[in-house]
């Protein structure tokens, strides 16, 4: 057994995983996994797949695959650009003629019906508008005829009655006194201070992601703090800008690590065994998938203005 094989087997035993379980996680046949542990690389389908199988095996047991390949580069066969020739040829799937879309035949009829309904609605609104205008004009004409008949019948008020009588001097003095007293009673209105708007609530939103890669955006937050809690052992890598490493190690069970990344605009988190890890941002738990076990998470932080 090689040193690399011994290290992989020890990591697998630490996680209490069998080769059958590793096969289920990585989809690599058990006989290839056993060959990697024993260093029998000639049993693998080729150098290209040898390196790929070792990397997947390492990440499944919580080790960093790329670093492991570099560390044991002299022991692992060099990869070639060519894919092994003994792979079976890919079968081309027969082209299935597409069925005619039922909606495409119905759509023209529906469009015509909608067009007819629209034209009918426009005509109805035009007719209603003309009726309302005609009714308004007839009402106005009736009112004018009534006024004209009143004037002709002598019901209009006489010019002497219409003219206002001049006010007495005493009444003018009373009006001035009442106006002055009302001005004194008025008090200046209190100026209301503008109400302060509440600060926007912090929001953590998942912007994109697939089976093993997720991206989250943190907005309206005064700080950017990441906490990693372990329920079991797992390799964890937390890096910021300029590849600054905050966490870059295998964490044991029941460990809690917190880092303040408020000065960072973004951060990257790589987890070797996601079922054993809980991640919190500013105290709020992030939902990270458990399958596959190796997960990559990116955080983009926008500080509150």
Structure overview:
The protein has eight helices and ten strands. By secondary structure, it is an alpha+beta fold. Strands 1-2-10-7-4-5 form a six-stranded mixed sheet, with no helix packed on it. Strand 8 and strand 9 form a beta hairpin. The radius of gyration is 42 Å and the shape is elongated. The relative contact order is 0.09.
Give the spatial strand order of the biggest sheet.
1-2-10-7-4-5
Work out the strand percent: 15-25%
Q: What is the element string, with H for helices and E for strands? A: HHHHHHHHEEEEEEEEEE
Task: Count every helix, treating DSSP H or I runs of 4 or more residues as helices.
Answer: 8
| Rounded average pLDDT | 78
Q: How many extended strands? A: 10
Kindly list the characteristics that best describe this protein:
305 residues; alpha+beta; 6-stranded mixed β-sheet; 4-stranded antiparallel β-sheet; 10 strands; elongated
Helix-strand layout with pairing:
Layout: H1 3-14, H2 19-26, H3 30-38, H4 47-60, H5 65-71, H6 102-153, H7 159-162, H8 169-185, E1 203-209, E2 213-221, E3 225-230, E4 234-239, E5 245-251, E6 256-260, E7 266-271, E8 277-281, E9 284-285, E10 295-303
Parallel strand pairs: 2-10
Antiparallel strand pairs: 1-2, 3-6, 3-8, 4-5, 4-7, 7-10, 8-9
